[in-house]
Amino acid sequence: PRVGEVTNDRASVNVGLRFYSDVPGTVTGIRFYKGPRNTGTHIGSLWSTSGARPGTVTFTGETASGWQQANFATPISITARTVYTVSYLAPGGYYACDQNYAWSALNAGPLRVSGSSPGVYVYGSSAAFPASSWNRSNYYVDVVFVPSGTTNPPASTYTISGRVSGSSATLTLSGASSATTTTDTAGNYVFSGVRTGSYVVAASRPGYTFTPATTSVSVNGA
Predict the structure, then answer these.
(1) Of 12, 32, 133, nearest to 87 (Cα)?
(2) Which residues partner with 84 through β-bridges?
(3) Could you give the count of Cα atoms lying within 13 Å of 2 in the half-sphere of its Cβ?
C-alpha cells in the first residue's frame, strides 16, 4: 500500500494495530513501514487483549526506508475471533502516521482490524502495550500470519549482482551467509539464493587492487 505522512514527532513511542483472525493460525512475524528518519533499534511485540506479551523480536538488517520485517524465532499460535495487538518501538519517533484512515475499506481476510480505530500507541522508552488511539490513525504496522492447516512457504531468496572492472576476479560474500563466485569475461557476478540480512561483497585478483575494497549490501524482502 501507499504510505502517507511520516510524523515529525521525535518522542520514543510504541505504535501498533489491533487485529483478529476469522480462523486460528500462527503469527510468524511483524512488519512496519519505516521512513528515513525513523532510526534506532526497533523492537516488535505481539500482545494479548490483557496486555500479556507472548512474543517479541528485534529488527535487524533494516533498509534505510520502506517495509521492514522481523520473524519470531518460533511461530506464535493465536485463536480465532480473539483480539491481539501487534506493535513496534520507534525509539527516535518519525513513525508513519495517516490520520482519518479509511479502515472500513481495508479487506485482508481472514485477518480483520478490530474496531473503527484500530491504530494504537503508547509513549515510552521501552516496549509497552499500546492502547490509546488518535484520529483513527494508521501507523502502518502489520502482522505476518499463517492460517492453521497451511504449510509455511519456504523462505524467499534473492540475488546480489554487480560488475567489477576486468575479468576473472573472485567475489566473496560474507555476513548473514557466505559464498564465493567468479566474474564472467565482462566482469559480471551473481550470488543466488540469498536470504534477508546484511552482507559484504569483496573482490580479489592476484596483482590487482579494487576500489572500493568492499561493498555493503542489505537485503530485506527485495
Answers:
(1) 32
(2) 19
(3) 4
Task: Write the CA distances from 102 to 16, 116, 135, 152, integer angstroms.
Answer: 16, 9, 11, 31
- Those residues of the chain that have pLDDT short of 70 are 1-5, 150-155, 166-167, 221-222
C-alpha cell at 108: 485482508
C-alpha cell at position 127 = 516496549
- The answer to whether 171 and 180 are in contact (CB under 8 A) is yes
- Predicted model pTM: 0.68
pLDDT tens-digit map of 46-83: 999 999 999 999 999 888 888 899 999 899 999 999 99
Cβ(136)–Cβ(116) below 8 Å:
yes
pLDDT digits (tens, 9 = 90+) for 21-31: 999 999 999 99
Cβ–Cβ < 8 Å for 111, 26:
no
* 201: its cell numbers: 561483497
17 and 118 Cβ atoms separated by less than 8 Å:
yes
Give the span between the Cα atoms of 101 and 16, in whole angstroms: 14
Query: Which among 9, 18, 21 is positioned nearest to 136, based on CA atoms?
Result: 18
Cβ atoms of 142 and 128 within 8 Å: the answer is no
Evaluate whether 110 touches 20 at the Cβ level (below 8 Å): no
pLDDT in the model for residue 1: 40
Give the three-state DSSP class for 105.
Answer: helix
The one-letter amino acid code at 20 reads: Y
Q: Which three cell numbers stand for residue 221?
A: 524482502
